[in-house]
Amino acid sequence: MSRYIAIIDYGSGNLRSAQKALQLAAKNLDLPIEIIVSNRPEVIDKAERIVLPGVGAFADCYNGLFSIADIGSILEQRIIKQGLPFLGICVGMQLMAETGHEKGEHKGLGWIKGDVREIKPSNKSLKIPHMGWNEIIFNQDHVLLENLSDGLNGQHAYFVHSYQMQIKNQNDLLASCDYGGEITAMVGKDNIAGTQFHPEKSQKFGITILENFLRWKP
Description:
Shape: globular
Number of helices: 6
Number of strands: 14
Largest sheet: 8 strands, mixed
Mean pLDDT: 94
Order of helices and strands: EHEHEHHEHEEEEEEEEEEH
């Protein structure tokens, strides 16, 4: 098999749109690399980079992920020990937290210190889920936020979520947005990163994030 990036298929939605967006990003960079959607442990284990999307409830996504044989040891070896570039999207980002508090308390991957809790806007007129376009606030520099044609001002991304990651270490917060209070939009630590927004639905801004991920060498 040629060089490839694995999008983990664990029964969550939005896989094909993520695949198409990453294929476009690779084409824009003229990278000879395949984007493969798979739930096969041997495929995930040999990937150059791993992407974990996610749509749905925290516990359902976690359980779906760990229904893949040996996925815990594969992620521990490739991501934590070997430093393989990893990107979580939406609930895929939330799973990186220590604990999720959606319909009970549920264990997460524990890669980012923090919890996932219900969004409670200070402005009661704001509806949940937080859905649609929102302006991104950039909290710190990161390679995934480079090459934005309009700079770091006025960038918007597309969100669909009712829960958000509340991080404990502000050094892990790359970007946020305002929705009746601060909403974690993007996290990063060492070789792992995550977006609460959907880059595959965020037009040029989102494709640039994916392009940066494809050439990221943490």
